[in-house]
Design a protein that fits this description.
Length: 116
């Protein structure tokens, strides 16, 4: 369990770093002591940190895949987190950010009528 958590966190950290790089945040100042040991703060103050987090979330949990999997599996966050190798917390945040889940935990599925 701890081992899995460590892997999950490493994946997120790596994606977060790539986010900094691709977003052109070249100048990491000394304050950017990173995620690897300290807990990751999802609501980091810095806009660059937030941007890197959003990038990481998209990289690890692409929206189109999520939508497809939710329509197949339902909104089973535990299963989704395992499938995408992210923490459940990260999965929830991604779902909230894209309006796929609501606070309180139930899905706001836009399924409905089939369009044929
Ligand atoms: Zn960062």
């Amino acid at each position: 369990m701890n081992r899995r958590h460590a892997v999950v966190r490493q994946r997120f950290s790596a994606a977060h770093e790539i986010g900094h790089f691709l977003c052109g945040h070249e100048a990491f100042d000394d304050a950017h002591v990173h995620v690897e040991e300290s807990q990751h703060q999802w609501n980091s103050q810095s806009a660059q940190e937030r941007e890197a987090d959003e990038f990481a979330a998209e990289l690890l949990m692409p929206l189109e895949w999520l939508k497809r999997d939710i329509s197949k599996l339902g909104l089973d966050v535990t299963a989704l987190a395992r499938r995408y190798q992210v923490s459940e917390q990260a999965m929830w945040i991604q779902l909230f950010n894209h309006g796929l889940a609501e606070r309180g935990g139930h899905a706001s599925t836009k399924s409905g009528r089939s369009s044929r």
